[in-house]
């Protein structure tokens, strides 16, 4: 059986608005990249952590980031009083090779209300990019958000992420702070989802 779409699921193309295939742009495409590997090894300005609302660490990528950063990160996170779903907070990076960590809280995927989940996931990407820009982070790397234990299907999460990134670069980053957005995937399902969606949102120029 092929992945059946939940009843309320929109195809990725509707995330693009009325004109389905965006105009190809080399300069825009150059600002987005896909990598496969471990986000804790990246020496970018900011990495984005798929955190939970407590911001006190957890499993998956959150656990990996806290382990690599050391106790200083947990101590700083304790002072933040958590973070609502769909929002983001920034900290220092301690023993990590990056400069800052942006902690965002993705939604637990609700197939019965796909639109609400999608809105929150898009908000995670937009708020993280806003925080990066306002903190002069020019290079930012995202792990998958909600695509692990939070259950968001990768083939629906990838187009939502790319749509948010595209909109941010075109509409919200007027000052041109963000030079490069890297999406770092860990598992094959995420690699496949991004390879399929990337040319829809960032068509080859
Ligand atoms: P969530 O609770 O938001 O679903 P998870 O950490 O369970 O967060 O998963 C988010 C994504 O992070 C998943 O797609 C998973 O494959 C990926 N991931 C897990 N560890 C790492 C890592 N060290 N680097 C990059 N991505 C990772």
Protein traits:
6 helices, 6 strands, binds adenosine-5'-diphosphate, alpha/beta, about 15% strand, single chain, about 200 residues, six-stranded mixed β-sheet
Quick gist of this model?
The protein is α/β, with parallel strands linked by helices and 205 residues long. It is built from 6 helices and 6 strands, in the order H-E-E-H-H-E-E-H-E-H-E-H.
How does this structure look, described?
Residues 19-202 form the Macro domain. This is Macro domain-containing protein. This protein is an alpha/beta fold and 205 residues long. It is 37% helix and 16% strand. It contains 6 helices and 6 strands. It has a 6-stranded mixed sheet with strand order 1-6-5-2-4-3, with helices on both faces. Helix 5 links the parallel strand 5 and strand 6. Helix 4 crosses helix 5. The protein is globular, with a radius of gyration of 16 Å. The N and C termini lie far apart (35 Å). The mean pLDDT is 92. Adenosine-5'-diphosphate is lined by residues 38-40, 50, 60-62, 64, 106, 143-150, 184, 186-187, 190.
Ligands (ions, cofactors included) = adenosine-5'-diphosphate
Q: Which parts are unreliable, with pLDDT below 50 for 5 consecutive residues or more?
A: none
Please report the distance between the alpha carbons of the first and last residues: 35 Å
DSSP summary, beta strand count: 6
How do the helices and strands follow one another from N- to C-terminus? HEEHHEEHEHEH
Strand order of the largest sheet: 1-6-5-2-4-3
Count of runs of 4 or more consecutive helical residues: 6
Give the overall pLDDT as a whole number: 92
């Amino acid at each position: 059986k092929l992945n059946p779409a939940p009843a309320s699921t929109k195809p990725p193309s509707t995330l693009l608005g009325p004109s389905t295939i965006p105009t190809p742009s080399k300069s825009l495409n150059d600002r987005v990249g896909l990598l496969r590997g471990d986000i804790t090894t990246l020496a970018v300005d900011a990495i984005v952590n798929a955190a939970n609302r407590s911001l006190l660490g957890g499993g998956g990528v959150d656990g990996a980031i806290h382990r690599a950063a050391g106790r200083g990160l947990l101590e700083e996170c304790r002072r933040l009083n958590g973070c609502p779903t769909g929002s983001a907070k920034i900290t220092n990076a301690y023993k990590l090779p990056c400069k800052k960590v942006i902690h965002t809280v993705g939604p637990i995927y609700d197939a019965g209300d796909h639109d609400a989940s999608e809105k929150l996931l898009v908000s995670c990407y937009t708020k993280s990019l806003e925080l990066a820009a306002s903190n002069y982070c020019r290079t930012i790397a995202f792990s998958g958000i909600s695509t692990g234990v939070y259950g968001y299907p990768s083939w629906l999460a990838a187009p939502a992420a790319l749509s948010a990134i595209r909109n941010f670069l075109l509409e919200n980053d007027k000052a041109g702070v963000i030079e490069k957005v890297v999406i770092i995937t860990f598992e094959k399902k995420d690699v496949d989802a991004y390879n399929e969606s990337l040319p829809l949102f960032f068509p080859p120029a």
